[in-house]
Design goal:
The protein contains 10 helices and 15 strands. By secondary structure, it is α/β, with parallel strands linked by helices. Helix 8 packs antiparallel against helix 9. Pathway: Amino-acid biosynthesis; L-phenylalanine biosynthesis; phenylpyruvate from prephenate: step 1/1.
Amino acid sequence: MSDPQRTIAFQGSPGAYSDLACRTSRPELETLPCRSFDDAFAAVRDGAAGLAMIPIENSVAGRVADIHHLLPNSGLHIIGEHFQRVNHHLLGLKGARIQQLTHVHSHIHALNQCRTLIRELRLEPVVRLDTAGAAAEIAAAGDASQAVIASELAGDIYGLVSLKANIEDAQHNTTRFLIMAKEPVIPHPKSGPVMTSFVFRVRNVPAALYKALGGFATNGINMTKLESYLVGERFNAAQFYAEVEGHPEHKPLRLAIEELDFFSREVRILGVFPQHSYRWETDGTL
């Protein structure tokens, strides 16, 4: 059996883009496929894996559905981030030719991200739950008229060949992942650029959000993400997920969080983690 502390969990089948992100970011670790995000979180909580790789947003498809609801209640801490370039491949059976294809299978996002090629080849898109799972099904079916959009890794795992590479419409197609652990790993305040992620709820009074966020502006803190979503049964109870540049032990961010706490019902830090090099190697725009 593999060492749980040398294992990283992800949601999806072997060969999924989350699997690829795990292998790219932490090549020294074994990957553990899980059926759902909750299962991936549970694998870390229960000691079956030391880390979990969780997608949070994509530069084309936007944020990953429901993930912001799940993060605060996962019982885990964010200790890192990873940006994974998404290179879609049109995969088919060995010996198959593009001219034979009639249908293409994949996750709805992958199909939508490759509309140009699908239209050019006049293929009928078939929605599947995930890209790697679709690759496994196509390989097992043995029908040369059926293709799948998935990663090159999925092709290697399931014995499919790439009939055409890099078929995505947008060349900037990138997914951002969060790396989760059971215990926080907080960088030293002088270790370099870091991100701080937190959730909060404002009081139900006029201009509460404006007042709560004022401290970030006056203290010169760059907020890179702010998203709201409903919690509970009441439509006026919103929770906010935010990410800012900086360390909570730095005075500007400490003062901003203190002001946020004054105007909020709850503030909870989910993680303090090093910025990925993608943020300064590109313009960082997702």
